[in-house]
Amino acid sequence: DEARLVAWWRTSLDDQRRVLQEADAGWAWGDPVGYHVFWPAFEAAEYFRDPTLLEPAWEFMRAGLDRRRWGGAIACGKRFAAKYYEHTRDATVLERLREEADAILPRIHGHLPPFVQEAGGWVNNEVFANNGESLGSISRITGDPRYLEAALALGRFVHRACFDPAAALWLHRGHLSGPIPEASAHWGRGNGWFLYGVRGVLEDLPPDHPARPEFQAMLAAGLEGLLRHQGPYGLWHNVVTAPESLSRQDSC
Description:
The chain has 252 residues and is mainly alpha-helical.
């Protein structure tokens, strides 16, 4: 019964928003709490063609963007803060997004970002999630191509370091020299984070951008690998390639 499901969902989402907001609106930008409100709200509003389903998300973002409540970085979900700016045209939000993006750009330089140098050449695949899904949005909104180019450079680097062609999956941790499967694992949510970054880039790339086929190929390769390992209940193991005896099924 779709009507009952939607009615329950509306209440559930606002309950989550209220509890988290009363505790600390800074959680709006936490990993991964904010996604549990923002992502399903946008998906549902699009699917049901009902913009009122976004109301809990807008309210939570409004509270989370209040510097008196949360003066820290928008650690996760910058893409949703960009959507909030497009919804409200609040110039202070765009200024904050640009400030944080400008601080990131020097760290994504060429093929060896400083944070990779500091880690001895190692990089985790989820670093592409937040930057891939936000820098393209900021570039599209501002018209400044530097942000999109930084997202593309980071995605290429992380893909080269982490993608294991034999498994057609991303390793949680990759090396400057390339993927080393015996030194890491095909972490399920880590693959999801990388795909999140790829989706963000593809949504914000102009249709005729020369990087589009490259990132579409990344997307197709990773989805093919996940299809190989999907279990009979539609889930994957926490470590995707591990057997039942070594790794639990993971619902998130």
